[in-house]
Amino acid sequence: MESDRISKAVIKRLPRYYRYLGELIEEGVERISSAELSRIMHVTASQIRQDLNNFGGFGQQGYGYNVNYLYDEIGKILGLDSEHPMIILGAGNLGHTLANFRGFEKRSFRVIGIFDIDPRLAGQNVRGIPIMMIDRLPAFLKENHAEIAILTIPKDQAASLTEILVQNGIKAIWNFAHVDLEVPDDVIVENVHLSDSLMTLSYNLTNTHREG
Amino acid sequence: MESDRISKAVIKRLPRYYRYLGELIEEGVERISSAELSRIMHVTASQIRQDLNNFGGFGQQGYGYNVNYLYDEIGKILGLDSEHPMIILGAGNLGHTLANFRGFEKRSFRVIGIFDIDPRLAGQNVRGIPIMMIDRLPAFLKENHAEIAILTIPKDQAASLTEILVQNGIKAIWNFAHVDLEVPDDVIVENVHLSDSLMTLSYNLTNTHREG
Question: For the whole model, what pTM was predicted?
């Protein structure tokens, strides 16, 4: 892997390439020039060439990109060629919503367990995925291989549950709790702070239209 | 407003300041030094002073920041001092989840209508917010003031619905659809591409641990 040379900005753009290539495949497109890809993605062709050159290129002069091949290769770079078992902490609305996203499975993210503290949920399931009580979590993580933990719990429970996750070998947290997590250096956190996102929208709305 | 001088990076950090200040208020903290705020937020004190100086400072030498005052002022900068009526397009799991977030209302984001194409949902409501059929949307937008539209619809419906929204005066879209939207320059889009976020996590997980 050449990932140590690759900037965060490029990494952020990879899922977007993957998304557009997936759409091209759905439309039956087999190959595409960087000029055409540039037009639909609203980035310059030279940006596309530069980004993809980080991973060895993939394009051929006069032919363009083979859509299926490029899609698969970017998928591998994104780690989508191996399965990532996930658990969800918090079986509320958002936890249910994420457990129901079938699109994740297509891309090798499979939810293997959901945890909550509400005893009324014990024994229930979402699409066959069992909801367990949170005190089962350490034993579950010892008995099952889970890579990613999704946190959809209230912020006041996030710190103590993160500690349990880290102690039991979880190396990646997808955090929807409205709080920043403290984790060791070898644990990766990707935050989705929905309220922060809505406030950024509000800021831009308020200030753009005040000035306009 | 001094917003034209303010960088995107500062704007992205404002909701985080707001979040931390809100927590300090919950804990009963009335004033805080930039050194202490720096410690809990893991940013340098000089960064904090610089960021807040964009908006006129707010700190006092030897006193620090008045937590309530700073919270209110940042709230105003973020546009939280006026109400932003919202509509949700898509009454699936995610639409329901967002309609149920009570935290939004506390910050003056109020959902006034939910739209879907599924006739089985017609006449239903979420916490008193009516679910209407999508063909009612243009008339609803003429009769009601809505500022923000939240898109939780499948990607193949996003383009046509965005056109209807824009034609009927919507100036801000919070987009959860798995597609980039084409909008006029005066319409603000804030994307939450959940799959992109999960793939970024997967990339970092795959590549960090391959190298380690």
Answer: 0.91
